[in-house]
Amino acid sequence: MTTVSIVNVTGYTGLELLRLLAQHPEFVVTSVTGRSAVGQRLLDVFPQVQTLSSPGAGPRPMPIDPALAITEEPAQTELAFVCLPHAAAAESVVRLLERGIKVVDLSADFRLHDAKVYEEWYAHTHPAPALLESSIYGLPERYREQIRTASLVANPGCNATTTILGLLPIYAAGLAEREVITDVKAALSGAGRGLKLASLYAEANEDVTAYSVTGHRHLPEVTQEVVLAAQAGGHALEQPLRMTFFTHLVPMTRGIFVTSYIELKTDAHLTTEDVQDLYRKYYADEPFVHVVKQPPHTRWTYGSNHCFIYPIIDQRTNRLIVMSCLDNMGKGASGQAIQNANLMYGLPETTGLFPLGVNP
Ligand SMILES: NC(=O)C1=CN([C@@H]2O[C@H](COP(=O)(O)OP(=O)(O)OC[C@H]3O[C@@H](n4cnc5c(N)ncnc54)[C@H](OP(=O)(O)O)[C@@H]3O)[C@@H](O)[C@H]2O)C=CC1
Ligand SMILES: CC(=O)N[C@@H](CCC(=O)OP(=O)(O)O)C(=O)O
């Protein structure tokens, strides 16, 4: 058994971690924090957790104690999941590492390798640049081995994960030009649990709009990882990636659907069968990435850690069109955080993660 903290449990990703950890056979939640609920019990703030003490609930008699006190600072545990906004997250991560606690950080604070790029996109000085060297980008499909021995894993952004998984195979194979346009449709829970006008039911229901139109913060993260994947595949890009990354808000609770339009090398001459084959081989051993033969649905991913990808060729333009989707709370955040923690503790990567999404 490994003791874990959720810092904080009062946000969406923290709550989703609580749900996933309630049926994890190896991790035990012994500490939860919550800025707005210090001094209260889990049960007081989230009455639904009383199910955890029902007879026969979960794999253990009491996977998480519903009467666990919500504190300001986490108690001593072996591992902590940090679910705070950027900047606040980095400050917490520094304190946790000093106490010898391993960390999976769900914020953006340790994803970018270059502190200058971070400062440009997040508009403040990086609170702990020295840690950028040792933090590992928590995408198991790329960094599985490094994650196993890491003390600090930077869990990727949700839009970034969906996009990167759709781009890795073609850039690693050196078949794509540097021009790519990515269109993201993102669910409301991605914006977090705090009150925001755009997230109100009457504003968001029956509505689609665009956001971050002057540049989304996940662009540098995606660019960093695509460039590194091309290099790792022996096909370093000759010129910087030229990417338009454009996000839309859609009236769903969970889910991200990404469509990327990629300029192919003029001599590539690929068919849809070729790219399906290429993608299937690239992800052949991946438990959570599935290449499918029809447009996927976010509904397939709801409540799960799975990502579905559908690559096709637009013969008229010699462009590759890749559709990819996942649950932003799952593979886009808390599910991927558990996948990373499983690796850090030598467990099978799929431990405690649901094999099938919720449908309908
Ligand atoms: N939602 C998503 O789909 C994804 C989110 N992420 C990232 O994960 C992290 C958590 O996201 P999410 O759970 O959605 O966020 P929420 O807005 O739902 O929750 C944020 C949490 O942080 C606490 N908090 C807010 N501001 C501060 C502050 N200044 N100092 C200390 N604590 C603070 C809140 O406490 P309280 O409410 O008790 O005051 C709450 O517990 C963020 O960095 C986010 O960018 C990453 C991938 C996907
Ligand atoms: C709908 C919505 O607002 N989604 C968020 C997703 C945030 C996310 O993935 O988190 P990080 O800030 O940790 O990168 C966004 O696009 O900014």
Automatic annotation (TrEMBL):
<keyword id="KW-0560">Oxidoreductase</keyword>
<dbReference type="InterPro" id="IPR036291">
    <property type="entry name" value="NAD(P)-bd_dom_sf"/>
</dbReference>
<dbReference type="GO" id="GO:0006526">
    <property type="term" value="P:L-arginine biosynthetic process"/>
</dbReference>
<dbReference type="InterPro" id="IPR023013">
    <property type="entry name" value="AGPR_AS"/>
</dbReference>
<dbReference type="GO" id="GO:0070401">
    <property type="term" value="F:NADP+ binding"/>
</dbReference>
<protein>
    <recommendedName>
        <fullName>N-acetyl-gamma-glutamyl-phosphate reductase</fullName>
        <ecNumber>1.2.1.38</ecNumber>
    </recommendedName>
</protein>
<dbReference type="InterPro" id="IPR000706">
    <property type="entry name" value="AGPR_type-1"/>
</dbReference>
<dbReference type="GO" id="GO:0005737">
    <property type="term" value="C:cytoplasm"/>
</dbReference>
<dbReference type="InterPro" id="IPR000534">
    <property type="entry name" value="Semialdehyde_DH_NAD-bd"/>
</dbReference>
<comment type="pathway">
    <text>Amino-acid biosynthesis; L-arginine biosynthesis; N(2)-acetyl-L-ornithine from L-glutamate: step 3/4.</text>
</comment>
<dbReference type="Pfam" id="PF22698">
    <property type="entry name" value="Semialdhyde_dhC_1"/>
</dbReference>
<dbReference type="Pfam" id="PF01118">
    <property type="entry name" value="Semialdhyde_dh"/>
</dbReference>
<comment type="function">
    <text>Catalyzes the NADPH-dependent reduction of N-acetyl-5-glutamyl phosphate to yield N-acetyl-L-glutamate 5-semialdehyde.</text>
</comment>
<comment type="similarity">
    <text>Belongs to the NAGSA dehydrogenase family. Type 1 subfamily.</text>
</comment>
<dbReference type="GO" id="GO:0003942">
    <property type="term" value="F:N-acetyl-gamma-glutamyl-phosphate reductase activity"/>
</dbReference>
<dbReference type="GO" id="GO:0051287">
    <property type="term" value="F:NAD binding"/>
</dbReference>
<keyword id="KW-0028">Amino-acid biosynthesis</keyword>
<keyword id="KW-0521">NADP</keyword>
<dbReference type="InterPro" id="IPR058924">
    <property type="entry name" value="AGPR_dimerisation_dom"/>
</dbReference>
<feature type="active site">
    <location>
        <position position="158"/>
    </location>
</feature>
<feature type="domain" description="Semialdehyde dehydrogenase NAD-binding">
    <location>
        <begin position="3"/>
        <end position="150"/>
    </location>
</feature>
<keyword id="KW-0963">Cytoplasm</keyword>
<keyword id="KW-0055">Arginine biosynthesis</keyword>
<dbReference type="InterPro" id="IPR050085">
    <property type="entry name" value="AGPR"/>
</dbReference>
